[in-house]
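Re: cytidine-5'-monophosphate structure - here you go.
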Amino acid sequence: MGKDVIIALDFESKEKALSFLDQFAGEPKKPFVKIGMELYYAAGPDIVREIKARGHQIFLDLKLHDIPNTVKKAMSVLSGLDVDMLNLHAAGTKAMMEAALEGVTRPDGSRPLVIAVTQLTSTSQERMEGDLLIREPIDQVVLHYAQCARDAGLDGVVCSPLEAGKVHGACGETFLTVTPGVRFADGDVGDQVRVTTPEKAREIGSDYIVVGRPVTQAADPAAAYRRCVAEFVG
Ligand code: C5P
């Protein structure tokens, strides 16, 4: 599995997402893209089929979290969409993650990559202790959830690029780290707090970087994407 840049398609409609992707029509390699809840709930599964038909690899970022049987059945439906990567919340427990893998595996044994969300980056130590009654240091909680995901058979986790080295240390080099929070050295940080450049993310060991606004809001998105690939993949 090689390193790659994933563009976050954070658009509210099918039209906006597709007209954005039209700008990559001339690219030799169609970018790997992430479809999140906003676009999926607005445009439905057809947007996945249409973008797939244009030749893009797809990370469907729906963060499933429910009882094991429900997640298994939902994953079984999603496996029919032929996406390349799916995710769920490790907080659903190993039983839920194992059920997800059973559901997503097709009759021929193939399946998309499945990765876990550990603690959301919007969850602070204080909220985790006060709201969730989890009293351990958040770094340890993230690593523990990552190990549970690995033990359940998942392929990796979503994490900060700054945590990618530690996750590999705890879960092995082949356990994937998919990392948002990436900015160009000379770019706007926006609302992200802990950010890293594509080059630094590569050095720390990210396997995939997820990049949204530095590409989607760029004056020339195809050029910004190429720059990301050059800095991250080399
Ligand atoms: O525009 P930007 O590069 O900040 O977009 C990052 C993408 O990664 C968004 O789709 C955001 O929801 C997602 N993400 C994140 N931080 C996480 C998990 C997902 O920024 N911890």
